[in-house]
Amino acid sequence: MKQEEGSPASRIAGSQVVQRAALLMRLVAAAQRTGLRLTDLYRAAQLERPTAHRLLQALVTERLLRQDKENRRYFLGQAIYEMGLAASPQVALRDICHPHLQRIAQLTGDTVFLTERAGLDAVCTDRAEGNAPIKAYVLEVGKHRPLNVGGGAIAILSAMEDVELDRICRANLDRSLKRYPRYSEAVLRRDIARARACGYVCSKVLELPEVRTVAVPIRGLGGACVAAISVSTVMTRMTDKRTQAVAGILRQAVDEIEAELAERGPVALPQSAVGGERPPKNAGF
User: Fold this and answer.
1) Is 264 helix (H, G, I), strand (E, B) or coil?
2) Angle in degrees, 0-180, between the axes of helices 162-179 and 185-198, rounded to the nearest 10
3) Residue 232 three-state SS
4) Least C-beta-crowded within 10 Å: which of 24, 54, 85, 136?
5) Is a pLDDT exceeding 70 seen at residue 272?
6) How far is residue 54's CA from residue 77's CA, in Å, rounded to a whole number?
7) Are the beta carbons of 233 and 110 closer than 8 angstroms?
8) pLDDT tens-digit profile of 207-261?
9) Where are the alpha helices (DSSP H) in 31-142?
């Protein structure tokens, strides 16, 4: 029996298509540097292969995704870039921080990341690369992780009140343990305590134990922590002495950023820093 247009059943089916397409685009965005194969996408999205293929081809037709002709991997399309330009606010935290990220990358030679809070998640919104021969690609721009995973996220947590910190850790515990076998609440609490004592985070990367991250939180108007800047590199480069030097560079940059934030007033951020809802299924990639 054919569903009538506008009927409850057709509306449910239509919303499901939108949700699935959005999920596929988020997955591709999280792996934009390398792209993803059809096999990667239908498994990660928990879709049947024909369904995923049909949706992906529709997104390619609309230029929301593109497929490389040689390796057949999917990447974000030109239309996403065009819409992003139209949606960009007049002043965003990324715009203020970007010159500082570039300068830090030049001074340290390492990879620098801007991490912003989005509800219970941390999202990488910008990155700058130094000239060191070994690059630490810890995060892709657009990648979401639970707010209790990663140096930048830990820096944000370290600047919070304990009540909010505990709430976030409880809400994110199950998915953190599921996605990150090396995750430890005890290690997280230890890193936060150290960060509060010395003013910066120094932690190992869960996915890449040979990489070390140094991060400093950024406070917005009213003192609320909204983001963090971090530097990541291999542990052989990040000695204890160099860690302190990098932390000093980050601290100076953050002081300048916070001064500009105070002068400019409110700026656009990803989802409110007070967003307390659990991310939808498969939201963090």
Assistant:
1) helix
2) 140
3) strand
4) 85
5) no
6) 16
7) yes
8) 777 889 999 999 876 678 889 999 998 888 888 899 999 999 999 999 999 998 8
9) 38-44, 49-61, 78-87, 93-108
**Which residues have CB under 8 Å from 67's CB, separation 6+?**
56, 60, 73, 74, 75
Kindly give the interhelix angle for 162-179 and 151-158, rounded to the nearest 10 degrees: 160
Read off the pLDDT band of 277 (50, 70, 90). Answer: very low
Query: Strands 225-234, 111-118: parallel, antiparallel or unpaired by DSSP?
Result: antiparallel
What are 228's two structure tokens? 């963090």
Dist CA 253 CA 216 (whole Å): 9
Q: 144-174 pLDDT, tens per residue?
A: 889 999 899 999 999 988 988 998 999 999 8
CATH number of this structure's domain 88-264: 3.30.450.40
What CATH class has 8-85?
Answer: mainly alpha
Other Cβ atoms less than 10 A from the Cβ of 238: the count is 21
Count CA atoms within 13 Å of residue 56 on its CB side.
27
At 169, list the tokens: 């850790």
Cα diameter, the chain? 72
Domain boundaries, the chain: 8-85, 88-264
Paired with 234 in beta bridges are 211
For 185, the token pair is 């609440």
